[in-house]
Amino acid sequence: MRSLITAAALAITVACSGSSVAEPASIAATVPITAPMEDTRLIAVISYASWCGSCKVLDPKISDVKSSNTFEGVEFFALDYSARDKDAFYTDAETLGISDTLSARFDGKVKTGLMFLIDTETGDIVSEITKDMDEAAITAAINAATATS
User: Fold this and answer.
1) 13/101 Cα distance (integer angstroms)
2) Which of 57, 60, 115, 135 sits most deeply, having the most CB atoms within 10 A of its CB?
3) Class for domain 23-148, per CATH?
């Protein structure tokens, strides 16, 4: 009986210990909204909400791409729309200098689950990243966008 209890306790301990490899943190949870650095040529910004299904697919891909690549002149940000506060969303976008760009793209509504690669000099959206893209396609899009900006 004692060995059965010991085996059960060991099984519970192993099951509860989980993986020792940490998953990448969400970009929305780890990157504060600040003005881009002077040498930033491209802003990679996700329009994010915690309740958005597309965000739940896209965000981990972006985190993986960001953690496994070095993109010269690129800064990553997330504009959090989880509280559905349009004013706060656009205030953060203004801090990044992209409020007009996103306002024109969204045509009065905030859309989540998309990442935009925005040229800091022109304010133009160079590329749009969606949940359907894999990490290789996201990396290629960022590399192509940095080559043109």
Assistant:
1) 51
2) 115
3) alpha beta
